[in-house]
Structure formats: structure tokens, C-alpha cells
Write a structure and sequence with these properties.
The chain is α/β, with parallel strands linked by helices. It has one domain: 2-Layer Sandwich (Transcription Regulator spoIIAA). Helices cover 41% and strands 28% of the residues. It contains five helices and five strands. Strands 1-2-3-4-5 form a five-stranded mixed sheet. Strand 3 (48-58), helix 2 (60-76) and strand 4 form a beta-alpha-beta unit.
């Protein structure tokens, strides 16, 4: 399945960049994800919110893409947060310990309010 990616660069009103993803984050789509996420982590030092609300499946390569984004965010000292509202993705992030590494919110509204 495809991964649709759209970004709201600096237009959130909260001084953050937003990357909205939908579809599957897997071997076939991880390059598209990192190609969209990594440039946003270098734009003016603004935190990045990755909205995975529309993502129904993440495999190990997709998880690796999230870890790459986290690594770049930490190197740039930029905040990185996730929005996850599906049980399947939430459970994967919990089982792998990713939920301990970065903030995860149930809605974009809550993530924006935290900034």
C-alpha cells in the first residue's frame, strides 16, 4: 500500500512543523517517509510532529525510519513528537520501547497544545 505524506511547514500556528502520514509505513514506503521527515528536522529548529493517525501498519523498516528521524532530531536538538490513535501502531511502539523514547499523543490537537 502507498504512504501519503503531506507537511505543514511552520503553518501550524504553534511554531512547529507537521508531517501527516497515511497508509502503510513499511519497506516500500520508508524512503518516502524519511525523505519528507528529515528535511523538516533541519528547518529553523522548529519541533516536528509526525501524525501517524492515518497509518494502519508499520513494519520493522518503518520503525527504523522513525528511529532515524528520532536520531536526527536529537542530533539537531529539535523536539520530535508522534500522534498515534490506532491500537495496532500504538501496541507496536509500546512493544519496541519507542513509546519511552519520545512523546506520543492521541490527537494532533493534543500534540499542538503541548507546544
Amino acid at each position: 500500500m502507498e504512504l501519503d505524506v503531506s507537511s505543514g511547514v511552520g503553518d501550524s500556528g504553534a511554531g512547529v512543523n507537521i508531517l501527516i502520514c497515511s497508509g502503510d509505513l513499511d519497506l516500500e514506503t520508508v524512503d518516502r517517509f524519511t525523505g519528507a521527515a528529515l528535511p523538516l528536522l533541519g528547518m529553523g529548529g522548529k519541533p516536528l510532529i509526525i501524525d501517524l493517525s492515518g497509518v494502519g501498519f508499520i513494519d520493522s523498516m518503518g520503525l527504523g525510519g522513525l528511529i532515524i528521524a528520532l536520531k536526527h532530531a536529537r542530533e539537531a536538538e529539535i523536539g520530535l513528537e508522534l500522534v498515534v490513535n490506532t491500537e495496532r501502531v500504538s501496541r507496536l511502539l509500546s512493544l519496541t520501547g519507542v513509546d519511552v523514547l519520545l512523546p506520543i499523543y492521541e490527537s494532533l490537537k493534543r500534540a499542538l497544545a503541548s507546544n
